[in-house]
Target: Adenine deaminase
Amino acid sequence: PDLNAYIRGLPKAELHLHIEGTLEPELIFELAARNHMAIPYSSVEALRAAYAFTDLQSFLDLYYAGASVLITEQDFYDMTMAYLRRARADGVLHAEIMFDPQTHTGRGVAIETVFAGIARALREVRAATGISSYLLMSFLRHLSEQEAFDTLAAALPLREQYNDVWIGIGLDSAELGNPPDKFARIFARCKELEFRLVAHAGEEGPAAYVSDALDVLHVERIDHGVRSEDDPALMQRLIRDQVPLTVCPLSNLKLCVVDALEQHNLARLLRQGAMVTINSDDPAYFGGYVGQNYLATAQALGLSKQELGTLARNSLESCFLPADQKQVLL
Ligand code: ADE
Ligand code: ZN
Model:
C-alpha cells in the first residue's frame, strides 16, 4: 500500500498506450447494447476469461474484435474519458495516446468520427484538470503500404483542426513478417510533414527491426524494444543516444514475450543506462494500468524507490511536449 501511494505520487507520462486497448469488457458490453450489436460471449466474465493469450497475434484477434463495438463519436469519447480517469488516478500528468484508424475505417466508421470523439475527451480533460495529451495515429503493419498512404490522405485534411492534439505517427499490429522497411516511404512522407515518429519494434521481432526503425523509419522512440539486448552494438547505441524505450511489462508477460515478470530485462536495461520507461500498452487486456505496471515490475525485479523515480522522470523527459512545458512537469 505504501509503495502504491509512492508510485501514484510520482509525476509521470504514459507514452505507450493504445486507446482501443483500454476498452474494458464492461464497456464493450455497454457499447454493444447501445449499438444493437451481438457479442459472441455470454457475459463480461466470459469475455474476460477469453483473455488468455499465447502470443501477439492471439491478442490482436480479440483486440480488433473488441474494437468493433465502437461506432459513434460518443463511443470513442466514452472510451477515452474512461482511460483518462484511470490515468489521472495513477498520477499521469501527460499521455501520448495511439489510435488505429484503419481498425475503424475498415468497418465503415468515418475517420472524422474517430478523431472527433477521442479529441473531444482529450480537450475536455485538458481544460478541466490540466492533464495534457497528444495523439499518435498508428498504421497497422499487417496492412499494405498503400493502405497506410490512403489513411494518411484521409487524415491530413483534419490536421489543422486537431493540431493541438495530433502530433505524431506510430506503427503497430503484427510485427513478425512486417519489417520496418515495408513502411519506409510512408514514414519518410510523415517526417517531411513534420510529424513526431514512433514505431513498435523488438517486441516479438528481432533486434534488427529496432535498428531499422531507427535507420530506415527515423523514429524518435521505440515502442517495446526489449529484444534489443540480442544485439550488443545496438544496445550501446541506444544507451549512447538515450533513445527512449517504451516498455510494457504486463503486456510482455500476457503475450508470452517473457515467461515470468521476474525474468523481464527492464531492470537490466535501466541499470545499463538505457532510457527506459514503463507503460501499459493495452491495459484492459493485460491486467493493469500504468501504476500497476510500475508496482508489479518493482516487486518482481526489486526496483528501488530511486529507480522508480528515474523511470517516471524518464517518461517525462521522453515525451513530445515542448521543452518549456516539459520543464514545468519535471
Ligand atoms: N496493438 C495494440 N497493442 C499492440 C502491441 N503490443 N503490439 C503491436 N500492436 C499492438
Ligand atoms: Zn503497443
